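Dear U.,

For the methods section draft, I wanted the exact inputs and outputs in one place so we can describe them consistently. I've listed the two proteins in the order they'll appear in the manuscript figures. Please don't edit the token lines directly; just add comments below if something needs changing.

First protein:
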Amino acid sequence: MPHADTLDVVHHDDTRTRFTDVRYQLHRDGIRIWSADGEHAITDVLMTQAYRQREADR
């Protein structure tokens, strides 16, 4: 499961939601995100931008 230091979700109405230090999974119905705040499921996804500033854990 990918990890991102910053994950921006762009919605169909061009609004953005930003998450930090998350794991995420893209799927046909949208994106599922796991953060310190809990689990989020977003279905109105136009685009995502994930940023990783450190090396991935192996």
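Second protein (the one for the lower panel):
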Amino acid sequence: MSHLSRTLPLKRAAHVYLVQDQRLLLVAERMDDGSIFYGLPGGKAGPGESLADAAVRQVQVETGLTVTDLNFVSLLEGEMLTGTRNECYAIFGRFTAHFRGELNPTDPEVVGTRWVPFDEVMALVRYGPPPEVEERNPLIWVPTRDFLKGESRSYYPI
């Protein structure tokens, strides 16, 4: 079987950079191994759902905030977690948006939210094992690092 004939499941997800006073909103989630993971609000798109619609829905659940006026920032795309049970072809959109409301997550996996100064965001990121957790892949965080430096590109191949 040639490399190109494999069929990989598609994973489409969208995350939003919510910014206030040079601080970025991150959500804290408990991972399967019990550790706390800080990530961008957002998540997986449902079948037939646009990335923008997924971003609005997921941010509402994970933060309690209502987001409007989404602006596309970047797309991250490529094969992820090759050789693991979570192997997939990932299409991840990143947006900025206006927001209103109070922080009040209703997602049971979210254990908190935090406004983090730009210069502290990357220090919260945890890389490494377990290997099947995409959020720990350093490539996933390159668009965010660039965004925080004001150097976003529109496309990032994984």
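Candidate sentences for the figure legend, describing the second protein: Helices lie at 51-63, 118-124, 138-148. The chain has one domain: 10-157.

Thanks,
Y.
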